[in-house]
Each structure stands twice: as structure tokens, then as C-alpha cells.
Write a structure and sequence with these properties.
Helix content: 10-25%
Structural class: alpha+beta
Length: about 150
């Protein structure tokens, strides 16, 4: 993970992201929701266009975890975090690896933008946006073959 210590919250956000990756690995939807602000806004790969709230985030993760078996590995790459005061944001890439319930391996890269806010002295995820480019050749196929 490429994070630059550009502001005072750097170390705390690093711990938050480590906890996020661990909760994904452990398939712990409640722990993930606990890292989010109560009104987190999520622009995810799966429909709908947007979802809001930590409780909704937990349910969406539970639903996704049900389609996987074993741990889910997340690696953050080229993630650059900047911030000022109680607000920070980061942009980079995430690699997700898991096993589908039918045994098919999943290994995908996606673009990732994360917004953070500090409330009551603690950093939380306030916004996430994950995306995969698509081929604009008329097929509209997701470009899962791309790597940074």
C-alpha cells in the first residue's frame, strides 16, 4: 500500500484500512459496518447505483459473503491518501481474491476511491466508490483483465 504521510491522521487511517482488510478476510460484516460512519455513502460494483448507511453496508457484505467460501483477500495498491483536519480521501487500486461457492477463483482489480471523516476523535469510512472500466466496443463487457 502506497500511503504518504501528508497529514496528521495518516497513521490512524492506516490502522482503519488494516482493520477493513482484516474484516474482509474474516468475512465479518458487522466489523466492516463498525468502521463506517452511520451515513456512509457507497457506490459499489453491484447494483444499486448507491446505498447509504452502515447497516445497509453490513447487509450488502453479508449478501456478498454468502457467494464466497473461505477468506477474502484484499490488497491496496498505489493508494494515495490526503487530508486536512477531519476529512481525508484516498484513491488507488484494490485487488480482491476469493473463491466462489462453486470453487471458481475470483481475482479482480478495481479502481477505488475512499472518503474518510473524523467524528468524535475517530476516523471512519464516509464514502467508497469501486469501479471497473468497461469495453466501449459495443459489448459493454467489464474489463476485468486490466492490471495496474
Amino acid at each position: 500500500m502506497d500511503m504518504h504521510a501528508a497529514f496528521a491522521g495518516h497513521a490512524e487511517i492506516r490502522l482503519l484500512l488494516d482493520a477493513w482488510s482484516q474484516a474482509l478476510h474474516d468475512r465479518n460484516a458487522d466489523a466492516l459496518a463498525g468502521l463506517c460512519s452511520d451515513d456512509v455513502l457507497v457506490f459499489d460494483l453491484a447494483p444499486p447505483l448507491a446505498s447509504r448507511g452502515a447497516a445497509m453496508q453490513a447487509q450488502r457484505h453479508r449478501d456478498w459473503f454468502a457467494t464466497k467460501r473461505g477468506p477474502i483477500e484484499e490488497e491496496l495498491h498505489e493508494l494515495r491518501i490526503t487530508g486536512d483536519g477531519d476529512v481525508a480521501w484516498g484513491a488507488g487500486f484494490a485487488r480482491l481474491r476469493a473463491t466462489e461457492t462453486d470453487g471458481t477463483p475470483l481475482d479482480l482489480w478495481m479502481r477505488l476511491t475512499i472518503g474518510f471523516e473524523r467524528r468524535n476523535g475517530a476516523w471512519h469510512v464516509a464514502h467508497t466508490h469501486g469501479s471497473v472500466p468497461f469495453h466501449m466496443d459495443g459489448s459493454l463487457r467489464a474489463a476485468f483483465e486490466l492490471r495496474p
